[in-house]
Amino acid sequence: MAEIKNIFDAEGGSGQIAVERALAEVRAGRPVIVKAGRSHVLMLCVEALDERHIGAFETLGKRRARLLLPAPRLRRLGLDRTKPGAIALPSIDIARINILSLETAARIDAPVAALGRLDLAVFELVRLALVLPAVVVLPVAVRDIEGEGLVRVEAAAIEAFRRNSVRDLHIVGRAPVPLEGAPESEFVIFRGGEGLRDQVAVVVGKPDLSAPVTVRLHSACLTGDLFGSLKCDCGDQLRHTTRYMAENGGGVLLYLDQEGRGNGLSNKMRAYKLQAQGFDTYDADEVLGFDHDQRGFDFAAEMLHQIGVSRVHVMTNNPLKIAALETAGLEVVSDRRILGRVTDQNVRYLASKRDRAGHLIEVDGSPPQTGGKE
């Protein structure tokens, strides 16, 4: 048994396991204990909060509960904030909490305090779990939670989780999968990255790995990729990319589980509902507490390294992806634009990406075919 424990403890293994268990609990709507040294906080996401929790929180808390909100949400509440903050909860008033967390016309109603290390670790856990970034936290004593069966996780393990996940990324399967327009394709499945999700590299044709390889980092879009949503251009980009690679010497398309710019599918639907009320894509995300882009691409670069790609022609409109690949040690030889149909339903979305996030696209005319490096 000692040898098994040593394996799990090596290089943060036990910490990774604890975070993975905590992520499962958060996504299931159950409370989790986050700790550092002798300090412990009980956390529960607002989207899971209901009447069952009020008595437990007030028994443990003695009026010490707080609502943690991210900076974008605090700005929507009328504050000039660049960092997340905490609002005191004299009582667990679900109506008030929901207003502060979600209402579009809400305004701040109490002072906002800065967050400590445990609070910031809670936010990182919530981000990894892809739930709404609004959390009720409560400082607790160990004696008050003994025997409750709650999952406990160290703040340090949460802080190291993404870094360790990139290190642990590995191939778990691969097979040929003929695609329409790209019949000679292979799917390579990686386990790791962020959260507990698998990632896919689609190797189209037979790219020469000793030369620069055409590459696209494509974040999954269920609505656009699978159902042909008219609200975005993602499905067109996906299919145009594989066809282009098949006709131009092959390439690698990374299909990354980063729905809704890294916010997750449920939050993407919340944002879509706000867009239907008149908000643009970025304002909708800010109402929910998200920055313009929650994604990281360090694990995508590691996927390319493991396939044997070191120099790339990248197909993207997003300068953040170009910079991320360069930061990860890949040589970006050129960049090429890829844009789908402009529709009445997506023209505002495309214009917002251009104007507010610096995407290199032209909405009113044909997109440029090459970037400045080509």
Keywords summarizing the entry:
2 domains, 7-stranded mixed β-sheet, 374 residues, alpha/beta, Rossmann fold, 16 helices, DHBP synthase
Report the CATH architecture of the largest domain. Answer: Alpha-Beta Complex
The largest pleated sheet is described as: 7 strands, mixed
Beta-strand fraction estimate:
15-25%
Q: What is the radius of gyration? A: 22 Å
Secondary structure class reads alpha/beta
Number of helices: 16
Shape annotation = globular
Multimerization status: single chain
**What is the helix content?**
40-55%
CATH class division of the largest domain: Alpha Beta
Mean pLDDT: 89
CATH level-4 homologous superfamily of the largest domain: DHBP synthase
CATH structural fold name of the largest domain: DHBP synthase
**Spatial gap, N to C terminus:** 57 Å
Instruction: Detail the poorly predicted runs.
Output: 365-374
Beta strand count: 14
Helix-strand sequence? HHEEHEHEHEHEHEHEEEEHHEHHHHEHEH
Strands side by side in the biggest sheet: 5-4-3-6-2-1-7
* Domain module count: 2
